[in-house]
Design a protein that fits this description.
Blueprint: H1 3-28, E1 32-36, H2 56-59, E2 71-74, E3 81-85, E4 107-111, E5 128-130, H3 147-156, H4 162-187, H5 192-203, E6 215-218, E7 240-245, E8 248-249, E9 252-253, E10 256-261, H6 266-283, H7 291-308, H8 316-322, H9 324-328, E11 348-350, E12 353-355, E13 376-379, E14 382-384, H10 387-395, H11 404-410, E15 415-417, E16 420-423, E17 430-431, H12 432-438
Parallel strand pairs: 1-5, 3-4
Antiparallel strand pairs: 1-2, 2-3, 6-7, 7-10, 8-9, 11-12, 13-16, 14-15, 16-17
Helix pairs in contact: 1-3, 1-4, 4-5, 4-12, 6-7, 7-8
């Protein structure tokens, strides 16, 4: 992606944010929107800081992800103003002055201390909606996060501009490049930790840059949904590999999962079956579709895979109705994604608030909204062999629904998850992840 492409898309992105901000301020009865970039936090009884994470509301406007102590001032009818903190400091690297395709759209003022920002912010703080974390307070300028403003901004963040989709496309390209390197390391016999290092090297990103902690799981570890321990020595024998890892680009995230078998065996065949089901679910990302319905369809498709491989003795419909399918697929089908891996307002009923409930019996679904053009979601069906959940099936008297000898055969492989980032459009969805793998 060239800077010229981003430069051509960015003006429409800024115009969209300005229009949204004006409406949000009107709803809340404010004149100005103040957005702090966030600050460094220090560990208790120590002088070590936690990794800095920029305020998502701040990076929605510009691709600055390492600018602690900076502020944005948005006033309807005026150019956005950036107060950029560039301190005098010989202990740390001082941030470079802002540059690139986006700077011409802002009035930029460099400040040398965090407190200096107060001189350039509105004096009537009662007229300001200040959206950020409590640690960003400067004197009496304290984030108030008014509900009317936050509800509106977060609800509409689900609808990505063309600029944002390009940013996410690049994040997927970086992530896919790293996934390819991770698979090569797995095939070469590396440990979980070694695979993780290969991934980071290929992505050019470390723990502070990645959008979330890499899940790199060999064998049974694939049954731990958020496994992050990363053993230093590979198991013997190595049977399977599940990797859930993304990448960042200009503040936007990708979230990609793939699963591999070490041999051309029955588990490899099951992976292909889950992959086919996942592609069918991706194709259902259409405008007007209830995302919760895709989740329920995933249960039916995955239960069909389990029945095909002899794990289930009952129909997919019976497995869903009884809750048996949830023992093998215990998480949601996915979530919104963008500036955050789990994007905000997944349950929002409207831009004024309210909540759309999750389907009964499915507590871990992260999105219940109806899909519309511009929304970007993950689709991540999975099958796992988790002792705790399988024991619950037996305890509920539903053990006859399962062929336990088949469970024993697959349990050493842990689990399977396939995940792509998919854009809802007016027509056929755009699969950013498959697009990147194809390239």
């Amino acid at each position: 992606m060239s800077s010229a492409t981003l430069a051509s898309l960015y003006p429409q992105h800024i115009d969209t944010l300005l229009a949204r901000s004006a409406e949000a301020l009107q709803r809340g009865g404010f004149d100005h929107l103040l957005i702090p970039s966030g600050t460094l936090h220090y560990q208790a009884f120590d002088d070590r800081d936690y990794p800095y994470a920029v305020n998502p509301q701040f990076k929605a406007w510009l691709p600055l992800t390492r600018a602690p102590g900076s502020w944005l001032l948005i006033s309807p009818g005026q150019r956005p103003k950036l107060l950029f903190l560039q301190p005098h400091d010989y202990w740390h690297v001082v941030p470079d002055a802002p540059s690139g395709y986006w700077v011409e759209h802002f009035d930029i003022l460099t400040i040398r201390t965090a407190d200096e920002a107060l001189m350039h912010l509105p004096q009537d703080l009662a007229s300001c909606a200040i959206v950020g974390e409590p640690h960003s307070a400067l004197g009496d300028c304290t984030p108030n996060n008014p509900a009317a403003v936050v509800h509106y901004l977060e609800y509409h963040r689900a609808f990505k501009t063309a600029y944002e989709i390009e940013m996410m496309r690049q994040a997927n390209r970086i992530g896919v490049r790293a996934h390819r390197a991770a698979e090569r390391a797995f095939r070469a016999g590396a440990s979980e930790f070694g695979i993780h290092l290969a991934y980071c090297q290929a992505a050019g990103q470390d723990a502070n840059d990645l959008p979330y902690g890499n899940i790199v799981a060999l064998n049974e570890h694939g049954a731990v949904l958020h496994y992050t321990d990363r053993d230093r020595v590979p198991p013997k024998p190595v049977r399977s590999f599940l990797i859930d890892a993304g990448a960042s680009f200009g503040g936007y995230a990708s979230d990609i999962t793939r699963t591999y078998s070490a041999a051309e065996d029955e588990f490899a065949a099951m992976i292909r079956a889950v992959d086919a089901a996942q592609l069918e679910l991706c194709y259902r990302v259409r405008a007007g579709t209830d995302y919760a319905h895709i989740h329920l369809q995933a249960h039916l498709l995955l239960a069909g895979v389990l029945r095909e491989f002899g794990v289930l003795n009952v129909s997919p419909e019976d497995a869903l109705a009884s809750g048996v399918s949830s023992a093998f697929f215990p998480h949601g089908i996915g979530h919104g994604i963008g500036l955050q891996v789990h994007d905000v307002a997944g349950f929002a009923e409207s831009d004024s608030g309210g909540r759309i409930a999750k389907p009964d019996g499915h507590p871990y679904l992260r999105l219940t909204r109806t899909l519309a053009p511009g929304m970007v979601v993950t689709i991540e069906p999975g099958i796992y062999f988790i002792d705790m959940l399988l024991d619950e099936v037996k305890a509920k008297g539903l053990g006859d629904a399962v062929d336990w000898s088949r469970v024993d055969a697959f349990k050493p492989f842990g689990g399977i998850r396939i995940e792509d980032d998919v854009v809802c459009t007016e027509d056929v969805p755009i699969n950013l992840t498959r697009e990147a793998f194809a390239a």
